[in-house]
Specification:
about 200 residues, alpha+beta, SH3 type barrels, Arc Repressor Mutant, subunit A, 5-stranded antiparallel β-sheet, two-stranded antiparallel ribbon, 6 helices, globular
Protein backbone atom coordinates (compact mmCIF):
# COMPACT_ATOMS: atom_id res chain seq x y z
CA UNK A 1 0.00 0.00 0.00
CA UNK A 2 1.40 3.37 -1.05
CA UNK A 3 0.61 6.89 0.13
CA UNK A 4 -0.11 8.15 -3.39
CA UNK A 5 -3.18 5.86 -3.59
CA UNK A 6 -4.80 7.21 -0.42
CA UNK A 7 -7.86 9.43 -0.77
CA UNK A 8 -10.45 11.23 1.31
CA UNK A 9 -14.05 11.35 0.08
CA UNK A 10 -16.18 14.34 1.17
CA UNK A 11 -19.27 13.11 2.99
CA UNK A 12 -17.66 9.79 3.95
CA UNK A 13 -15.68 9.32 7.16
CA UNK A 14 -12.18 7.86 7.24
CA UNK A 15 -9.61 7.33 4.51
CA UNK A 16 -9.67 5.02 1.51
CA UNK A 17 -7.26 3.26 -0.79
CA UNK A 18 -7.93 3.09 -4.52
CA UNK A 19 -7.78 -0.59 -5.47
CA UNK A 20 -9.37 -0.98 -8.91
CA UNK A 21 -10.66 0.97 -11.91
CA UNK A 22 -14.16 0.24 -13.24
CA UNK A 23 -15.24 0.21 -16.90
CA UNK A 24 -17.64 3.13 -16.42
CA UNK A 25 -14.80 5.41 -15.31
CA UNK A 26 -15.41 4.99 -11.58
CA UNK A 27 -13.27 2.96 -9.23
CA UNK A 28 -13.37 0.67 -6.22
CA UNK A 29 -11.98 1.90 -2.90
CA UNK A 30 -11.21 0.09 0.34
CA UNK A 31 -11.67 1.71 3.76
CA UNK A 32 -8.43 1.73 5.77
CA UNK A 33 -10.29 1.13 9.03
CA UNK A 34 -12.91 -1.49 8.15
CA UNK A 35 -11.36 -2.91 4.94
CA UNK A 36 -14.80 -2.68 3.33
CA UNK A 37 -14.78 -2.16 -0.44
CA UNK A 38 -17.25 0.19 -2.09
CA UNK A 39 -17.69 1.50 -5.66
CA UNK A 40 -17.22 5.22 -6.25
CA UNK A 41 -18.75 7.08 -9.18
CA UNK A 42 -16.52 8.97 -11.59
CA UNK A 43 -18.63 12.05 -10.73
CA UNK A 44 -17.79 11.82 -7.01
CA UNK A 45 -15.37 14.48 -5.78
CA UNK A 46 -12.30 13.00 -4.09
CA UNK A 47 -9.21 14.44 -2.41
CA UNK A 48 -5.84 12.83 -3.13
CA UNK A 49 -3.75 13.19 0.03
CA UNK A 50 -0.57 13.40 -2.03
CA UNK A 51 -1.84 16.71 -3.44
CA UNK A 52 -2.63 18.31 -0.06
CA UNK A 53 -0.28 20.84 1.56
CA UNK A 54 -0.18 22.69 4.88
CA UNK A 55 0.31 26.44 5.36
CA UNK A 56 3.63 27.37 6.99
CA UNK A 57 5.45 30.65 7.60
CA UNK A 58 7.45 30.04 4.43
CA UNK A 59 6.32 27.74 1.62
CA UNK A 60 3.38 25.33 1.91
CA UNK A 61 4.55 21.92 3.10
CA UNK A 62 3.20 18.71 1.46
CA UNK A 63 1.07 16.70 3.88
CA UNK A 64 3.31 13.67 3.34
CA UNK A 65 6.31 15.64 4.65
CA UNK A 66 4.27 16.72 7.68
CA UNK A 67 3.47 13.07 8.37
CA UNK A 68 7.18 12.21 8.13
CA UNK A 69 7.88 14.83 10.80
CA UNK A 70 5.10 13.32 12.92
CA UNK A 71 6.72 9.91 12.56
CA UNK A 72 10.04 11.37 13.68
CA UNK A 73 8.15 12.62 16.75
CA UNK A 74 5.80 9.65 17.09
CA UNK A 75 5.52 9.90 20.88
CA UNK A 76 4.14 13.43 20.57
CA UNK A 77 1.92 12.62 17.58
CA UNK A 78 0.30 9.60 19.23
CA UNK A 79 -0.21 11.38 22.55
CA UNK A 80 -3.12 13.35 21.07
CA UNK A 81 -6.35 11.93 19.66
CA UNK A 82 -9.39 13.17 17.79
CA UNK A 83 -10.97 13.89 21.21
CA UNK A 84 -8.09 16.07 22.46
CA UNK A 85 -8.94 19.71 23.06
CA UNK A 86 -7.86 22.47 20.70
CA UNK A 87 -5.01 23.75 22.89
CA UNK A 88 -3.38 20.31 23.17
CA UNK A 89 -3.64 19.74 19.42
CA UNK A 90 -1.97 23.06 18.61
CA UNK A 91 0.79 22.51 21.19
CA UNK A 92 1.53 19.05 19.75
CA UNK A 93 1.69 20.34 16.17
CA UNK A 94 3.84 23.29 17.26
CA UNK A 95 6.39 20.87 18.71
CA UNK A 96 6.41 18.81 15.50
CA UNK A 97 6.08 21.63 12.96
CA UNK A 98 7.05 24.93 14.65
CA UNK A 99 6.66 26.91 11.42
CA UNK A 100 3.00 26.03 10.75
CA UNK A 101 0.77 29.06 10.19
CA UNK A 102 -1.45 29.27 13.28
CA UNK A 103 -3.83 31.77 11.67
CA UNK A 104 -4.57 29.81 8.52
CA UNK A 105 -4.38 26.22 9.78
CA UNK A 106 -7.62 25.60 11.65
CA UNK A 107 -8.06 23.34 14.66
CA UNK A 108 -10.33 21.08 12.60
CA UNK A 109 -7.46 20.62 10.10
CA UNK A 110 -4.99 19.78 12.89
CA UNK A 111 -7.41 17.26 14.39
CA UNK A 112 -7.85 15.66 10.98
CA UNK A 113 -4.07 15.46 10.43
CA UNK A 114 -3.45 13.60 13.68
CA UNK A 115 -6.38 11.27 13.00
CA UNK A 116 -5.09 10.52 9.50
CA UNK A 117 -1.55 10.01 10.78
CA UNK A 118 -2.74 7.28 13.17
CA UNK A 119 -4.18 5.42 10.17
CA UNK A 120 -1.21 5.96 7.86
CA UNK A 121 1.93 5.93 9.99
CA UNK A 122 2.89 2.37 8.98
CA UNK A 123 3.21 3.40 5.33
CA UNK A 124 4.88 6.77 5.99
CA UNK A 125 8.53 6.50 5.01
CA UNK A 126 8.14 3.02 3.48
CA UNK A 127 10.18 2.25 0.36
CA UNK A 128 6.99 2.01 -1.73
CA UNK A 129 5.63 5.36 -0.52
CA UNK A 130 8.98 7.10 -0.86
CA UNK A 131 9.37 5.93 -4.46
CA UNK A 132 5.79 6.92 -5.34
CA UNK A 133 6.06 10.34 -3.68
CA UNK A 134 9.40 11.17 -5.29
CA UNK A 135 7.70 10.60 -8.66
CA UNK A 136 4.66 12.61 -7.56
CA UNK A 137 6.87 15.57 -6.57
CA UNK A 138 8.31 15.70 -10.10
CA UNK A 139 4.80 15.77 -11.60
CA UNK A 140 3.16 18.09 -9.02
CA UNK A 141 2.40 21.66 -10.18
CA UNK A 142 4.05 24.57 -8.33
CA UNK A 143 0.94 25.46 -6.32
CA UNK A 144 -0.49 22.59 -4.29
CA UNK A 145 -4.01 22.78 -2.83
CA UNK A 146 -4.06 23.37 0.93
CA UNK A 147 -6.55 21.99 3.42
CA UNK A 148 -8.08 25.44 3.86
CA UNK A 149 -8.07 26.16 0.13
CA UNK A 150 -10.39 23.19 -0.45
CA UNK A 151 -12.93 24.68 1.97
CA UNK A 152 -12.71 28.06 0.22
CA UNK A 153 -13.26 26.43 -3.18
CA UNK A 154 -16.40 24.67 -1.92
CA UNK A 155 -17.77 27.91 -0.43
CA UNK A 156 -16.98 29.82 -3.64
CA UNK A 157 -18.69 27.15 -5.75
CA UNK A 158 -21.86 27.41 -3.68
CA UNK A 159 -21.75 31.21 -3.84
CA UNK A 160 -21.48 31.12 -7.64
CA UNK A 161 -24.44 28.75 -8.01
CA UNK A 162 -26.85 30.84 -5.90
CA UNK A 163 -26.84 34.04 -8.02
CA UNK A 164 -27.21 32.02 -11.21
CA UNK A 165 -30.56 30.67 -10.01
CA UNK A 166 -31.80 34.16 -9.16
CA UNK A 167 -30.65 35.54 -12.51
CA UNK A 168 -32.40 32.70 -14.32
CA UNK A 169 -35.61 33.40 -12.40
CA UNK A 170 -35.42 37.14 -13.16
CA UNK A 171 -34.78 36.40 -16.84
CA UNK A 172 -37.97 34.32 -16.97
CA UNK A 173 -39.94 37.18 -15.41
CA UNK A 174 -38.45 39.70 -17.88
CA UNK A 175 -39.26 37.41 -20.82
CA UNK A 176 -42.82 37.07 -19.59
CA UNK A 177 -43.20 40.87 -19.35
CA UNK A 178 -41.73 41.38 -22.83
CA UNK A 179 -44.06 38.78 -24.26
CA UNK A 180 -47.08 40.53 -22.69
CA UNK A 181 -46.03 43.93 -24.02
CA UNK A 182 -45.39 42.68 -27.57
CA UNK A 183 -48.71 40.85 -27.90
CA UNK A 184 -51.39 43.24 -29.20
CA UNK A 185 -54.62 43.37 -27.26
CA UNK A 186 -57.47 41.56 -29.00
CA UNK A 187 -59.81 43.86 -30.97
CA UNK A 188 -63.35 44.16 -29.72
CA UNK A 189 -65.96 42.85 -32.08
CA UNK A 190 -68.37 45.46 -33.34
CA UNK A 191 -71.86 44.97 -32.01
CA UNK A 192 -74.27 43.61 -34.60
CA UNK A 193 -76.68 46.26 -35.97
CA UNK A 194 -80.32 45.67 -35.28
CA UNK A 195 -82.64 45.93 -38.26
CA UNK A 196 -86.35 46.61 -38.07
CA UNK A 197 -88.71 45.22 -40.58
CA UNK A 198 -91.00 47.75 -42.25
CA UNK A 199 -94.68 46.80 -42.11
Amino acid sequence: MSFDKIISIPGMSGLFQMVAQMRNGGFVVEGLSDKRRVPVSAMQRIIMLKDVAIYTADEDMPLYDVFKKMKDNDAIATAVTAKSDSADLKIALKKILPEFDEERVHTSDIRKMFTWYSLLKEMIGSAESEAAMSTAVEETPEEMPTMKAKKEEAIAANAEDAPKKKVAKKKKEDDAETSTEDTPAPKKKAAAKKTTKSE
